[in-house]
Design a protein that fits this description.
This protein is of the alpha+beta class. The protein contains twelve helices and 14 strands. Helix 4 crosses helix 5, helix 10 packs antiparallel against helix 11 and helix 11 crosses helix 12. The termini are far apart. The structure holds flavin-adenine dinucleotide (FAD). The site of flavin-adenine dinucleotide (FAD) has 28 residues, from strand 2, helix 2, helix 6, helix 7 and strand 10.
Length: 294
């Protein structure tokens, strides 16, 4: 099998246009599973793993920019300032998978269970796509993820990066699986407090065709926290009934199915519990009097 090995991003984009039959491969942790199970036999591979332009991350114009080739191991190590994403990265596979697996591969695979996706949805991230003929375009995550394993990536495009404003406030990612490690999520949830916008963002994985936002739960929580004065004083208590209702609204936003990993009812219940816990953690995790002190 032929393997194209471009040395630069420009060469990779040219090759993507000129050789559409060459299948992009980054870390190979999804692709090689498909090859090993004989579900994929491309005529050629387009190896993206050597492209320095895709490998790193930086900040630009007030946004965090993560290159498509950034591995989960580096996210885990270097991006503790984005706890929800770092926690999601830490929950992916094993150290070996995290050393190879990339955020671009997670996006392009578009699995409903992709662990990076809930954090990126809660950060309201955009995906940057590039082609040799048309240059770069930027689409929202919602426009990029069309359904299970379906994206709006054009045949001559590559994922270049994902970018978002770094949220100001606590956040977390949690996932339920059939065991504690090396597991595909049966349900996952990211909750991110946005203290500047006085908003709560909730995104759920493995409970729908693609990552879902729980918008009613978000609006309910933002109202409840504002009424409790919780955006101004970390100590303001949020009643247990509020947490319960928040969890139920998150569960109601799920669109789960029964499959070998869990029933729809179990997944909905899991989301309710994860949402409730995530909101309590976010409130506990806020530095006392941060807003009140200005
Ligand atoms: C044992 C094991 C455990 C795993 N555990 C988890 C887990 O816990 N959570 C989880 O989310 N995933 C898990 N995965 C899946 C996989 O590791 C992730 O989806 C990972 O992010 C894939 O990245 P990659 O770089 O290896 O992608 P690859 O396998 O190289 O590619 C995946 C897909 O993305 C495309 N692609 C890659 N980069 C680009 C690009 N820049 N532009 C356009 N298309 C591109 C490829 O053509 C292919 O279609 C696991 C896999 C294995 C084998």
């Amino acid at each position: 099998m032929e393997v194209l090995r471009p040395a630069t991003l420009a060469e990779a984009l040219e090759a993507r246009s000129a050789r559409p039959e060459a299948f992009p491969i980054a870390g190979g942790t999804d692709v090689m599973v498909a090859v090993n199970f004989d579900r994929l036999r491309p005529e050629a591979f387009l190896d993206l793993s050597r492209l320095d332009e895709l490998r790193g991350w930086h900040e630009e114009d007030g946004e965090v920019v993560l290159g498509a080739g950034l591995t989960f191991a580096r996210i885990e190590r270097e991006l503790a300032s984005l706890p929800a994403l770092a926690q999601a990265a830490r929950s992916v596979g094993s150290p070996q998978i995290r050393a190879r697996g990339t955020i671009g591969g997670n996006l392009a695979t578009a699995s409903p269970a992709g662990d990076a996706l809930p954090a990126l949805a809660a950060y309201e991230a955009d995906v940057v796509l590039g082609s040799a003929a048309r240059g770069e375009r930027r689409v929202s995550l919602r426009e990029f993820l069309l359904g299970p394993k379906r994206t709006s990536l054009e045949p001559d495009e590559l994922v270049l990066a994902v970018r978002f404003r770094s949220p100001h406030g606590p956040g977390s990612f949690s996932k339920v699986g059939t065991r504690n490690a090396m597991v595909i999520a049966v349900a996952s949830l990211c909750l991110q407090l946005d203290e500047d916008a006085r908003a709560v963002r909730v995104a759920m994985g493995s409970v729908g065709p693609t990552v879902l936002r729980a918008t009613e739960a978000e609006a309910f929580a933002a109202r409840a926290l504002a009424e409790a004065g919780a955006f101004d004083a970390a100590a303001a208590p949020v009643p247990a009934a509020t947490l319960r209702e928040f969890g139920q609204l998150a569960g109601a936003a799920a669109r789960p199915i029964d499959d070998v990993r869990g029933t729809a009812a179990y997944r909905r219940h899991a989301v309710e519990v994860l949402a409730r816990r995530a909101l309590s953690w976010a409130l506990e995790g806020r530095p006392a009097g941060r807003r009140a002190a200005g």
